[in-house]
Amino acid sequence: MNGTTYLVLAYIAGIGLFWSYAAAIWRTARSLDRAARAAARSIPDNRGDRQ
Amino acid sequence: MTAADKPLLPGKLYWLATAGGFVAAVMLAVAWAPTEATMGPVQKIFYLHLPTAINTFLACLLVFIASVGYLWQRKNWWDDLAAAGANVAVLFCSVVLLTGMTWARGAWGQWWTWSPRLTFSLVLWFLYTVYLMIRASIESRQRRAVISAVYAIVAFLDVPLVYLSARLMPDIHPASVALAPAMRVTLACWFVPVTLLCAGLIAIRFQLNRRVSSAKQRKDVRPLSRPAAAGGSL
Amino acid sequence: MSRVVRQVLLLVAKDLRIEARSRQTLGLVVILGLLIVVVLGLGLGAQENVAGFSATAVLWVAYLFAGVLCFEKTMAVERTDGAMAALLLAPIDRGVIYAAKLLTNLALTAAVALVVTPAGVLFFSFDLSASPLVFVLVVGISMVGFAAVGTLFASVVSSSRLQGGLLALMIFPVSLPLVIVSTRLLNRIFRDGQGLDGQTLGILIAFDVIFIATSWIVFDCVLEA
Question: How many Å separate Cα C38 from the centre of its chain?
Fold first, then answer.
């Protein structure tokens, strides 16, 4: 393992972690949005007799 | 209508620019920046390491400010901001540790030494990881916010103490390299994408926290409306 | 001014009296401290000549764990019978409550140290003859900073519903600078045979001042029944 290998390792690890984290947040936000939209659709009408 | 309909800020352009910045920075470091005589190419880890370290500190500062803000105004968004800052701080601190250790391994053959810099990074990592652990172990919204805020304030004021005490550790490999002008330019170029990334990550994490909070609030509120619906019109 | 001192001493006396009557915490914590010393001694190979100066590390571990338990108990005392509410209604400054709790904690940890330290010295053949007073001084000063932060954190984490170990989790990383500096001071004297480094001692004292000031101020902002 020479110097350049370590350099590449460090860059990939660091930058990779950064962007994985961003991707994870986007993914979570998307699924939250989906859940929220589904929930909004399924809230029963307040005029209860209409089912 | 709901917060879910608003897209996460910042938008695509920001992230594309940041990604582009990284590509440019890496190319600059690898192809243009001069290789340091004694340490070789490993020294170029520094271009990632230092901006990340500075941003870690800025994120920690944000956690401190947000915690003070929460204790002062007791508004939940301060707490969500503090949590976002801490999340990103731990992420960035992890990168600082990993790059620091890789640098140590590449330059001096050891993955770990109790040098001032590595010791400081490690303790900082623990300080803010504990913050996240605290948040994870408290259910009640308000208690979690208060306890985390108190801890964050003390933890941040502890940072200079950690720095001072770490400086007492034996430093066999003083790594302050005299920077050639080309190195300085490269370093400056690295600061841009890393800082943009840090700010952007905090922003989207914050928005995510806000959405989770409001989703939880909606869940708590809804059961109240159902009896009314079942009982006919109001 | 003297009224404040009197209030503080009153509160401390109350806490110590409660502790003396029940006698549970101190006994438990002392035994725990001793056990930690023994575990580490055995873990280090139970050799005849374990480096004497590793006693500092061993003692620190024992103090940290024992101290955390003391801090928890001192605050828990106020949970029974609505004592905390009564305390807050009394016409005393919250800073006085903090000072009293801090002193109580210091008294308890000092009592623990009084038993555990000789045990450490015994089991590790730690040679304190170089400067026993300096040892006491350095450990004492470090304890003050440790107790300052511990008192604050214990006051906010004062609920049995919270997960165990939370207090230790909070105190340990924050206290690391104290561990680092005091260990360095003591090693310089007992391992390297050099004198007391005034500058480093000054740093340790400065740490204490920062810890006490910060904890005092934040305590004032967050104490609730």
Answer: 20
